[in-house]
Design goal:
This protein has about 240 residues and is α+β, with helices and mostly antiparallel strands. The strands form three sheets. The protein has a five-stranded antiparallel beta sheet, with no helix packed on it. A four-stranded antiparallel beta sheet has the order 1-3-8-5, with no helix packed on it. Helix 1 runs antiparallel to helix 3. The chain starts with a helix and ends with a helix.
Length: about 240
């Protein structure tokens, strides 16, 4: 095999391997924390926020999730949606002082929401589930809604996702799910959403699907690159053998 041919074959194989590596890194999810989806909402508005719960254990399944709503930023309208195999319960706490909203005096608000799996139901290892909450009006006096969560497994293990963001911006070991709240008069954000709707640009869900598709495409390109490199080496060896 000539040195130039060998270099070309190795280059093709290297490109393929790099494509595979990039695709895997791009497609791989972040550490499997309990998170809030989507991660942003508008201050003062209503939003559906889903708690995304992955099962990190290799041997146990998730059978319970409890989420705490911030007592210092009470949310007066909290609603769940039916999830087959799960029962949702809400606990309310008194507000001191009461708050005024739409001409009414509100003396209590939901403090926790708990989803409990029915017998035989769980989030198995390697799976995740979303637990949606309709929330509003969202606070206008903070830029972050923190929703501490407690995840319970069917082997009795309990994991608390309740650590606030670190002061230096680094992620703690057990971060609490949170939603970034943007000002209601954020014209740039409104324009972006309007533009996306008008032009057919992908929304958050579509972007997620696109990322997964690109990840799969990257894997295919990587595999083809490896095949090209291997084929070049094989052809060169055959040519060299025939010339002897």
């Amino acid at each position: 095999m000539s040195s130039s041919t060998r270099r070309n074959a190795l280059r093709a194989g290297t490109v393929g391997a790099l494509a595979v590596t990039v695709a895997v890194i791009g497609a791989a999810p972040a550490l499997a924390h309990v998170t809030a989806q989507p991660g942003t909402a508008q201050q003062g508005g209503y939003s559906v926020v889903a708690l995304r719960v992955p099962t990190e254990s290799d041997t146990a399944g998730t059978v319970k999730l409890q989420v705490t709503l911030p007592p210092d930023h009470p949310i007066t309208s909290v609603r769940t949606t039916p999830r087959p195999g799960w029962t949702a319960t809400m606990t309310k706490a008194p507000l001191n002082p009461p708050i005024q909203r739409s001409g009414r005096t509100i003396t209590e608000a939901v403090s926790t929401v708990t989803w409990t799996a029915d017998p035989g139901t769980r989030i198995a290892p390697g799976e995740f589930a979303d637990f949606p909450l309709s929330l509003g009006p969202l606070p206008t006096d903070t830029d972050r809604l923190v929703l501490p969560a407690v995840q319970t497994y069917d082997n009795g293990e309990v994991v608390a996702w309740d650590q606030p963001p670190a002061a230096d911006g680094s992620e703690p070991e057990r971060p609490a799910p949170s939603v970034t709240l943007t000002p209601a008069d954020d014209e740039a954000g409104t324009a972006l959403v309007t533009s996306a709707s008008a032009t057919g640009a992908p929304t958050a869900g579509a972007t997620d699907d696109t990322a997964r598709w690109l990840g799969g495409a990257g894997l295919l390109v990587g595999a083809l690159g490896l095949g090209v490199g291997a084929g070049a080496v094989l052809r060169t060896r055959r040519t060299a053998g025939a010339g002897k």
